[in-house]
Amino acid sequence: MVKRRFSALFLTLTLLLCTLPAAAAEGDNWLVPKVQEAPAFTDMAGVWCEDAVQTVCQTGLMQGRSDGSFNPSGALTGAHIVTICARLYDLLTGGDGTLQEPAADQAWYDPAYESLAEALDYAGGLDALRINIHPDKYSIRRWQFVELLDQTLTAADVTLPAINQITVLPDTTDTAVLKLCSAGILTGSDQYGSFRGNESLSRGQAAAILARLADPAQRQTFTPEPFDLCADVLGVDGATVLLTVGGESVTAELFAYNLCDALCRGDGSTQAALEDAIRNWCFYDAPFQFLAEDLSMRLTAEEQAEAAQAGQNNAGYWGMGAAYWQYKQSGVLLNGNLRMLYWEKDWKTGEAAYHQELEAVSEALLESAEPTAALTSLNLEAIKAKSENSPICWS
Predict the structure, then answer these.
(1) 26 — pLDDT class (breaks 50, 70, 90)
(2) Which among 180, 144, 148 has a CA at the least distance from the CA of 162?
């Protein structure tokens, strides 16, 4: 009797277990469906993006080369990323990622350009897409791929959930980049989360991005460290006065970017770069405030609020704080108001008169500029070296 009861119980449990759903197969919860098996590439064993390449080839978004390799360090052309995004759009909208075969008189990538231009309702149409993303004239930069990827996701009505809180990066304010960082698709290239958008995109990097897009389990959480140009590169507090111009103090918080940018771009002595930085401040940053003050012009309350908002929105970009960006936006607004004031005085000669007056103010400011001991004591060679390896040179 005991044996029969045990046997019946065992049979019941077996039947129940057989009716439970099986574990989800690989790719079942992917955003982009798995459409094929990935080949065993000859050059991918142990490479940093090995798993990503397998994922992205399973989706059919990327393929290997005819010699059996993947070439993860190889560059991508415009034709490659347009083809990837055309396949992606098709997969996201219910297709299998297969594009039309080219006609006898077409290049291999022509159907992809035609398909994507239509899918994105690309501004300017097919011709504009070919011009903006030339098929084979140059290797693609990171920002170009991310921009086209974002346009493709938008056209396919895909909104990625945010798993990171990324509102600013030190080398870009591009909303497409910020969205993909927040979604864990992009992860940054250093502790600050720098994007390095002007660098060429390799096949391995594209595979990593697309694999995280396809498979939510591969998306990464991260919190970038704040980048402070004054502290991290100049080694000074932002409130340190580095310069006096027109009798007014210019703090590191306002002048740091001018100095570091001039050191990065300069091909001569650091002293010459310092002089360029001071000149640029006097001619392109400060003169609007001084001329407006001379003319008793003030920003309206609405314009002041706009400048303050710009400061908050951009704080952290280039490692500069809200005060710098508020000052810059105030200058933009004052420049527009001053130009209009001179134009209204005389629409024929007002523009020329404005520029002449602005030039005179700038020259006077440059003549009055006095570096402080805090500025002259800085090790410009060391700052140049740090600047060249910081996010401001990657923007």
Answers:
(1) low
(2) 180
User: CA–CA separation, 180 vs 182, rounded Å?
Assistant: 5
105: helix, strand or coil: coil
Residue 61 CB coordination number (10 Å): 24
CB 259 within 8 A of CB 275: no
- Specify the amino acid at residue 206: A
Closest CA to 228 of 168, 174, 305, 164: 168
The whole-number pLDDT of residue 244 equals: 98
Query: How far is C-alpha 226 from the geometric centre of its chain's CA atoms?
Result: 16
How many Å apart are CA 77 and CA 365, to the nearest integer? 48
Query: Which amino acid makes up residue 248?
Result: E
DSSP string covering 27-91: TTT-SS---SPPP--TT-TT-TTHHHHHHHHHHTSS---TTS---TT-B-BHHHHHHHHHHHHHH
Give yes or no for a contact between 88 and 76, defined as CB atoms under 8 angstroms apart: no
Which element (helix H / strand E) includes 370?
strand 370-371
Alpha helix positions (H), 105-187: 110-120, 125-132, 142-155, 175-182
Q: Say if residues 83 and 54 touch (Cβ distance below 8 Å).
A: no
> What pTM, to 2 d.p., does this model score?
0.87
pLDDT band at 135 (very low <50, low <70, confident <90, very high): very high
According to DSSP, the β-strands at 248-251 and 370-371 are: unpaired
List 241's β-bridge partners, or say none.
251
Give the pairing type, strands 241-245 and 370-371: antiparallel
Sheet holding 241-245, edge to edge: 248-251, 241-245, 370-371
Separation between Cα atoms, residue 377 and residue 279, nearest integer Å: 19
Give the pLDDT of residue 394. Answer: 79
